[in-house]
Amino acid sequence: DAEITQSPRHKITETGRQVTLACHQTWNHNNMFWYRQDLGHGLRLIHYSYGVQDTNKGEVSDGYSVSRSNTEDLPLTLESAASSQTSVYFCASSSGQGTDTQYFGPGTRLTVL
Amino acid sequence: QKEVEQNSGPLSVPEGAIASLNCTYSDRVSQSFFWYRQYSGKSPELIMSIYSNGDKEDGRFTAQLNKASQYVSLLIRDSQPSDSATYLCAVNRGTGGFKTIFGAGTRLFVKA
Fold it and tell me: pLDDT per residue over B58-107, tens digit each?
């Protein structure tokens, strides 16, 4: 069955360290998204991609970067982790054909100390 | 004004009652509307999508869309304790390169 996975599921890191969160989907979807979810804010879009070599900034992109070298993966990198980036991160994908329904990964809980 | 607004709740209903969840959006050109359910500690999952004015029914769930009033709602009939979750409203301008905007969600609690 097609799926979308994230790793690690939990991560504790220190301020200033570089952190990469992995996202892998086997839906063969063109569109991939990274969100963060914080209490009271719902899901906020960090970065998104509509295909290989395409990346775009979302509403809260400062301090984050992504790259899309293949269809299946969209890793999210925190260049220099800050305590304000403590959050739950969700990756999602969609086919982008007709309905734009998004399928979410299980999430990564990141704590920056 | 937030692009997609929901009452944060919690909305508490007794088992067997109808739960009514509401959402308003600001972008008049929005074309696609979604309701996602998110259990505590889990990821969002799609339960309903609606694209045209009126009602759309799927089992115990009914989505209602009124584009003139920029309003979308979700009704859950015969509410069960297993329906207790946060419900996220999401809105998209359409396909082909537009982002989906999520509301902050409404927490629903169904009392047994």
Answer: 999 999 999 999 999 999 999 999 999 999 999 987 655 567 889 999 99
pLDDT at B29: 82
Chain B residue numbers with beta carbons less than 8 Å from the beta carbon of A40 are: 8, 104
Q: Which residues of B touch A96 (CB under 8 A)?
A: 95-96
Residues of B engaging A, defined by a Cβ cutoff of 8 Å: 8, 32, 34, 42-46, 49, 88, 90, 92, 94-100, 102-105
Q: Which two tokens stand for residue A110?
A: 């990141």
Please, is A50 exposed, middle or buried when counting C-beta atoms within 10 Å of its C-beta (0-12, 13-18, 19+)? middle
The Cα B106–Cα A103 span in angstroms is: 20
Residue B56, CA distances (Å) to A22, A111, B50 in order = 36, 41, 7
